[in-house]
Design goal:
Number of helices: 20
Structural class: alpha+beta
Shape: elongated
Largest sheet: 6 strands, mixed
Distance between the termini: 64 Å
Radius of gyration: 30 Å
Helix content: 40-55%
Number of domains: 4
Oligomer: single chain
Number of strands: 18
Strand content: 15-25%
């Protein structure tokens, strides 16, 4: 039994009888010329997002070839392009030129601490390194020659590009060598080009594209189509038509690469640990517009670094890669086109979280994500304002899953030491900012000026902390704000009062929490109108879990 990655209709191919044969290399001096092969592609006929992204990658690569200086042997060009379709003309020499650029690479030296099994290094050398304590030591290194993909098209869209590399391109190269081409036997085309030879993949592609049996199928590997395998558990193989399988060479060149981080609480601190790569594959809906917008959008990426990675490439969730890409495209589109333009530019994104475990490439997650314009805009607001990694990750999960912004914080408070929540300055600031942002979003429809539940809880927590601070420690802000030493004492005692209430609320649930809220937090004068007290009482009875979460957030914000 076989399954094909095709739909009912397939792209039309026009080739004269003379178009059969193998591509010649660039140095072939034969005067014979083969009539171009014409490939017509319709976006709607392509079976997967990777195929549609591949068509966009092919368009961008052909445009890039046209801009390169020097002789252009053979035919490799766009004959027609619009938002729904493209026509491509290729002959053997042009296809060879296309693939030679696609898989262009060079040999570079790589310093490794351990010798490779069965491989002789170019040479050995010694480096003087300095450890964390400032002490120096000599370390022995083994230098090997390794092929490095050139990715000239991506370099032209990298705002950090300098000479033959750039930080965004390096991230893409590292992803390619760790995942898609993580097995050394899959790197053949790049190795050939690094050695100065033409890749044989062009001849194979030409033979398949011009075969007599136009509907003959070809097997797919996971290098070409993510998730593909020789046979699945039911014995079904992954196959495709040659004309559509051809597009799978190009989708990595429009795929956006990011680095997901896992958060680990260690020694009462939150640490982030990079884990693999997140790939956001755009499901292109408007081909010509996408190919015009993407290069300019990518040139607008940030140039700041965190370690040796672009700062903007670090994400808290794999699916955030789709939101980042959406934000780039949305930001690039003109204000005149607005939300309508972005909403019709892509259908969504296929998101893969890949990593390498020893010699094995692992898929940590795969999903389909279709963010609405409003979600992309909400993400842009979150991204620039939230500083605490734990707080930001929880808010992102809520945004993606379309839950209330405070959902999930109950688990964060229950499973994390208070030092990383209420005790962390960035967490406290994010809690205050988020509460203030949402204070007026939950107003009653019948009374738009009525305060939200967030605002009521915030006011109760704030007034309780200030009154207890004055009663217990005789401290008021207006009396200490001009005295640095008293101001420091004020802030320290304020945090103690908030922390005591925070720990008391965190340890209670159900009726115990309700009793503490009503009997302790409301034991100080709360100057609220009757209708607002009634609303708090109703929320305590019907939403006590949400009230507990909001109370903990409010106490954190007032610490």
């Amino acid at each position: 039994m076989k399954t094909r990655a095709t739909s009912r209709r397939s792209p039309r191919t026009k080739a004269p009888p003379s178009a059969r044969g193998s591509p010649r290399s660039r140095n072939d001096a034969s005067p014979e010329r083969t009539a171009p092969l014409v490939l017509d592609y319709q976006l709607a006929e392509l079976p997967t997002a990777q195929h549609r992204a591949g068509l966009a990658g092919l368009v961008l690569m052909l445009r890039w070839l046209e801009r390169l200086p020097g002789a252009k042997p053979g035919t490799a060009r766009l004959a027609r392009l619009d938002d729904a379709s493209a026509r491509v003309e290729l002959d053997p020499r042009g296809l060879q030129r296309l693939f030679d650029e696609l898989y262009a690479a060079r040999l570079e030296e790589k310093w490794e601490k351990k010798p490779r099994d069965g491989a002789r290094p170019l040479r050995e050398d010694v480096k003087v390194v300095r450890d964390k304590k400032g002490e120096t030591r000599r370390e022995r290194y083994f230098i090997y020659e390794v092929p490095v993909p050139r990715a000239g098209l991506l370099l032209s869209m990298d705002p950090t590009a300098s000479d033959r590399t750039g930080h965004w391109v390096k991230l893409w190269r590292d992803m390619l060598w760790s995942t898609l081409r993580g097995v050394p036997t899959t790197r053949g085309p790049f190795i050939s080009r690094a050695l100065g030879e033409s890749t044989s993949d062009a001849a194979k592609a030409w033979k398949l594209l011009t075969a007599k049996r136009r509907r003959a199928s070809v097997s797919l590997s996971s290098t070409e189509l993510l998730g593909a395998m020789e046979h699945n558990a039911e014995g079904v193989s992954f196959e495709d038509l040659p004309r559509t399988a051809f597009l799978l060479h190009f989708w990595p060149y429009v795929t956006q690469v990011y680095v997901p981080r896992t958060l680990v609480v260690k020694e009462r601190r939150v640490l982030s640990d990079p884990r693999g790569y997140a790939l956001a594959i755009p499901d292109v809906a408007r081909l010509r517009t996408f190919c015009e917008v993407l290069p300019r959008a990518l040139l607008g990426r940030g140039t700041a670094l965190r370690g040796f990675r672009p700062q903007e490439s670090m994400v808290d969730l794999a699916v955030e890669s789709a939101l980042m890409t959406g934000q780039l495209l949305r930001r690039r589109l003109s204000k005149a086109e607005g939300a309508l333009a972005y909403s019709s530019l892509v259908w969504g994104y296929d998101v893969f979280h890949l990593g390498k475990d020893g010699n094995n490439v692992r898929t940590h997650g795969a999903s389909r994500f279709e963010p609405e314009v409003e979600m992309v805009d909400a993400y842009a607001a979150l991204q620039g304002s939230l500083k605490d990694a734990l707080f930001r990750r929880t808010c992102l999960l809520n945004l993606v899953k379309q839950r209330p912004w405070y959902a999930g914080f109950d688990r964060v408070f229950a499973t994390s030491p208070h030092e990383v929540t209420l005790g962390a300055m960035a967490f406290r600031q994010d809690a205050r900012l988020s509460l203030e942002r949402h204070m007026h979003m939950d107003s009653n429809a019948s009374s738009p000026s009525a305060p939200s539940l967030e605002q009521l809880v915030f006011q109760v927590a704030r007034h309780y902390v200030l009154v207890k601070l004055e009663r217990k420690h005789k401290l008021r802000w207006d009396a200490v704000k001009d005295d640095p030493s008293l101001k420091k004492t004020y802030n320290e005692k304020k945090e103690v009062v908030a922390r005591d209430a925070f720990l008391a609320v965190r340890s209670r649930s159900g009726q115990d929490f309700i009793a503490y809220f009503a009997g302790t937090l409301c034991s100080v004068p709360q100057h609220l109108p009757v209708d607002q007290f009634v609303r708090l009482s109703q929320a305590l009875q019907t939403q006590h879990e949400d009230m507990k979460t909001l109370t903990l957030l409010a106490l954190s914000a007032n610490a």
